[in-house]
Specification:
This is Molybdenum cofactor biosynthesis protein B. The chain is an alpha/beta fold and 190 residues long. Helix content is 34%, strand content 18%. The protein is globular and about 45 Å long. It starts with 11 loop residues before the first strand and ends in an 8-residue tail after the last strand.
Length: 190
């Protein structure tokens, strides 16, 4: 199908909040990501809250990368230079191909909004096993910026001149789930 005739394809998206203090009751950034995704007709596949521990983050993401139904993984939190922040280290080793432009553009957009503090963002993205992985700050404003300006346009097959959708579709990926799975290492949201 040519891009001129492209139609919207809803994707299966997992949302992971990296935090030692958030729960499903107070995860405002996870809620924001979920609302933005479903507002664009994508489907929430799973939602997790994982502690700021490198191997917990990596294990959760690796499991989703291996799941043929999961097409996109959005992480929020743990991307700054704080002592416990390790999201970038946890996920970047899993990339088959980094999407270098995401971090560069996110920092450029952040600089416009907040000045030199943008230097401390280690937002990153990459592709692994036909899955797009994006790690962004846990701030709702930063997540909103990333979603609206960068991520959602690239998750739309109609986006010209290019988008990620064709790289995320696999033959066995015809979602039949009627409700998303949600779980957490600390709590479960029904």
């Amino acid at each position: 199908m040519s891009k001129a005739n492209a139609v919207f394809i809803p994707l299966q998206v997992a949302v992971i909040t990296v935090s030692d203090s958030r729960t499903f009751d107070n995860d405002s950034t996870g809620d924001l990501l979920q609302q933005r995704l479903t507002g664009q007709q994508h489907q929430l596949y799973q939602r997790h809250i994982v502690p700021q521990q490198l191997h917990h983050i990596r294990a959760c993401v690796a499991t989703l990368i291996a799941d043929p139904l999961c097409q996109v993984i959005l992480l929020n939190g743990g991307t700054g230079f704080g002592q416990d922040n390790c999201t970038e280290q946890a996920v970047s080793v899993l990339f088959d191909q980094p999407v270098v432009g995401f971090g560069e553009l996110f920092r450029q957009l952040s600089f416009t909004a907040m000045g030199s503090a943008a230097l401390q963002s280690r937002a990153t993205a990459g592709l692994a096993n036909h899955t797009l992985i994006v790690a962004m700050p846990g701030s709702p404003n930063a997540a909103e910026l990333a979603m609206v300006q960068l991520i959602l346009p690239q998750l739309d097959a109609r986006q010209q001149p290019c988008n990620f959708v064709s790289q995320l579709i696999h033959a066995q990926c015809s979602p039949t789930r009627t409700s998303p799975q949600q779980d957490s290492h600390q709590s479960t949201k029904s």
